[in-house]
Amino acid sequence: MSLIHIEKASKYYTMGEETIKALDDVSLDIDHGEFVAIMGPSGSGKSTLMNIIGCLDVVDKGIYNLDGQAINVLKDSQLADIRNQKIGFVFQSFNLLPRLSAYENVELPLIYRGMSKKEREPLVLHALEAVDLQDRKKHFPSELSGGQQQRVAIARTLAGDPSIILADEPTGALDSKIGVEILNILKRLNAQGRTIILITHDLLIAQQAKRIVRFRDGRLNEVV
C-alpha cells in the first residue's frame, strides 16, 4: 500500500466571478521512503498539491489517502493532529522566530505538544546534531548564515520525528553552494528512511530526487 495515494483529485478556487482549477484530475502514488520532486512553473499547481499532501487543504473531488487513512472526510482538528504527528515542513523563508535561539526555535513545537523539558531536551539536541549545529544552539537567527538558519528549520522539523518531510523551495533563498549542503541533508534523511517531497521550479534541484513529477496547468504532465 502506498504511503500517499491520490486518485482523480481536483481542487477549485474562486477569484471574483472566475473559478480556477488548481488541480485537474490528478492521480499520484508515493511510497514509503521515496524522495520525490514535484516540479513546475509558478501557477502550475505544485503548491496546491503540497498543501493537499500536507493536510493544509483538502480536495474538492477525488481521493486522498495518507498511510491508508482517508483524509477528505477529516475535521480541521484531525488534520492538525496528522500534521503534528506525521508531517514536517521546510520552507524557503526559514520562518524562525528572531528572539529565540536556535535551540529554542527547535524546541518550540515540542512545547506546543505539551512535552516536559526533560522530554524535549534530548530531542532538540539530537535534531541539532543531525544538521551539525549543536555548537550553534545558543545563537540567534541574526547570528547565523542563511544556510545555518535553514538547517535550524530542518532540525525544528526533525525534532517532531515526522515520517514525511515536505520541503517547499528549501534552497530558494540560498546560494548554490549552500543549497547543495541543504539538499545533501535531505538526501541523508531520506537514506535514514524518511519520505522526502521536494517542491521546486528548478530542474537542477529536482534532479537531486529519485523521481520527478512534473506539473503544468494543474495537471500531472510527466513522471520520471
TrEMBL record:
Residues 4-224 form the ABC transporter domain. One of its GO terms (molecular function) is ATP binding. Pfam families: ABC_tran. InterPro entries: AAA+_ATPase, ABC_transporter-like_ATP-bd, ABC_transporter-like_CS, MacB-like_ATP-bd, P-loop_NTPase. Gene3D superfamilies: P-loop containing nucleotide triphosphate hydrolases. SUPFAM superfamilies: P-loop containing nucleoside triphosphate hydrolases. Keywords: ATP-binding, Nucleotide-binding, Transport. Belongs to the ABC transporter superfamily. This is ATP-binding cassette domain-containing protein. It comes from Paenibacillus germinis.
